[in-house]
């Protein structure tokens, strides 16, 4: 890269020198001819020819380097496409047998609960619970591969943000209870109507609330707010959890990246949740912001365009 930049800087300087030499040559030959300047004119012509030769050499090298860079970029793009297809194919192949495992474990769970076999019931419940976790990870991989390949489709419908938030809080109530969290929901006075993909908006809310539950220690507090700000519908998810260091905030939306990225990380997951969330928000022409401080929790703010024709 350093060599490429040096060539790019050399070419303009050579052009300047050539123009100066040509200008001087024309000046001495046409405007101010002098009988004793033949040697100077000859030297000027030679200098111009040498500079032109150097210019040709440098531009040829730059052209070759650009072709190499283009080829490398093409190969990288192809590798990236193959990676995305591999993730999508593997995820789909894993989801099919996993669904079968979950179905049979659910049947076993019902049968063992009737037989009051608590020991085996606990084993089967663990299998079913971990299968659900694995399915969630696989679904994240599938969503990520669709976003990466540009195959994300939006099915627009009219709905209120409040009803999506209410469903999300209700569905995640079990997870909240397991950690003893106190979840408070504050709605604004005016219903917030959206013309958007209801499933995708719900996925955004689920991802943010799940993160708040995951990264908040037992008996923590989580607050969800909705309000209108100008032409935007906003909702916030605030927790008093572990928080995010300032130098990590800029990386949290990167795929396969978590705030705790150490080898023996405490929290499970691929680190795709926030990357998917940001892409979904942007696909709706919205924005997402985060404010956080280690040990004091995090605040995520999502803004989405409000549907005015309601």
From TrEMBL:
Lineage top rank: taxon: Bacteria
Residue ranges constituting the Histidine kinase domain according to the UniProt record: 89-308
Enzyme class: transferase
Gene3D superfamilies documented for this protein: 1.10.287.130, Histidine kinase-like ATPase, C-terminal domain
Transmembrane spans: 7-29, 41-59
Catalytic activity: ATP + protein L-histidine = ADP + protein N-phospho-L-histidine
Keywords: ATP-binding, Cell membrane, Kinase, Membrane, Nucleotide-binding, Phosphoprotein, Transferase, Transmembrane, Transmembrane helix, Two-component regulatory system
EC number from the UniProt entry: 2.7.13.3
Listed GO MF terms: ATP binding; phosphorelay sensor kinase activity
GO cellular component: plasma membrane
Subcellular location: Cell membrane
Pfam families in the record: HATPase_c, HisKA
PANTHER family the record matches: HISTIDINE KINASE 1, TWO-COMPONENT HISTIDINE KINASE
The protein's name: histidine kinase
Organism: Aneurinibacillus aneurinilyticus ATCC 12856
């Amino acid at each position: 890269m350093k060599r490429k930049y040096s060539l790019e800087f050399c070419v303009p300087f050579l052009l300047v020198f050539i123009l100066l030499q040509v200008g001087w040559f024309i000046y001495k030959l046409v405007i101010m001819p002098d009988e004793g300047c033949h040697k100077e004119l000859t030297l000027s012509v030679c200098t111009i020819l040498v500079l032109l030769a150097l210019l040709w050499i440098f531009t040829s090298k730059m052209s070759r380097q650009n072709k190499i860079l283009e080829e490398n970029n093409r190969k990288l793009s192809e590798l990236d496409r193959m990676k995305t297809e591999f993730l999508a194919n593997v995820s789909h192949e894993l989801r099919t047998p996993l669904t079968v495992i979950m179905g049979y474990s659910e049947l076993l769970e019902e049968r063992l609960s009737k037989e009051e076999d608590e020991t085996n019931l606990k084993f089967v419940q663990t299998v079913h619970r971990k299968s659900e976790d694995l399915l969630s990870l696989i679904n994240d991989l599938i969503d990520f591969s669709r976003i990466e390949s540009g195959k994300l489709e939006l099915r627009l419908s009219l709905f209120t943000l409040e009803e999506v938030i209410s469903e999300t809080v209700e569905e995640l109530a079990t997870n909240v209870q397991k950690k003893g969290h106190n979840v408070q929901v504050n709605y604004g006075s005016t219903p917030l109507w959206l013309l958007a993909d209801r499933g995708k908006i719900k996925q955004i809310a689920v991802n943010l609330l799940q993160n708040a539950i995951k990264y908040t220690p037992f008996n923590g507090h989580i607050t969800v707010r909705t309000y209108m700000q100008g032409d935007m519908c906003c909702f916030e998810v605030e927790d008093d959890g572990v928080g995010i260091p300032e130098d990590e905030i800029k990386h949290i939306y990167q795929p396969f990246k978590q705030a705790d990225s150490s080898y023996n990380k405490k929290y499970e997951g691929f680190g795709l949740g926030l990357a998917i969330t940001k892409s979904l928000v942007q696909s709706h022409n919205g924005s997402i912001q985060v404010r956080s401080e280690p040990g004091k929790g995090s605040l995520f703010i999502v803004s989405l365009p409000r549907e005015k024709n309601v």
